[in-house]
Write a structure and sequence with these properties.
Layout (H helix, E strand, L loop, with lengths): L7 E6 L2 E6 L16 H4 L1 E6 L2 E6 L1 H10 L3 H14 L1 E2 H10 L4 H11 L7 E2 L1
Parallel strand pairs: 5-6
Antiparallel strand pairs: 1-2, 3-4
Helix pairs in contact: 2-3, 2-4
Length: 122
Amino acid sequence: MPCCVQYYAAFEVDGVQVDASTVETPSQSTFIEAFGSGPWTHFSEIAVGDKRVAVVAPELRLATELCRDRKDRAEIIAHWMRDHGCDAPLLRNAMEARGIDAATQSSVMATIRERGELEVRD
């Protein structure tokens, strides 16, 4: 993707859509998904068969979707975080690094805390 200074690929693996992209732009922030060291510093591991695969932290991904105004995707991620927990300071830092306005940040944090029993790590 020349406009984005990024390489992107999409595959189907055993019937599952898998997307991959590179990080090609330097940044001083470690809280941005697609720039600098953020995805290498903050990541999660998921099971793929008998292997573990590193993926970008959902907190960084949510901030990216908010920044790109992809509300449908952001809502799915926020609800997943509500159901499975999240690193609240990382999410706050990621939203701040992406310039997400205070009202949206408050709304997202309220969404992920909706159920009450959620593990939100502060």
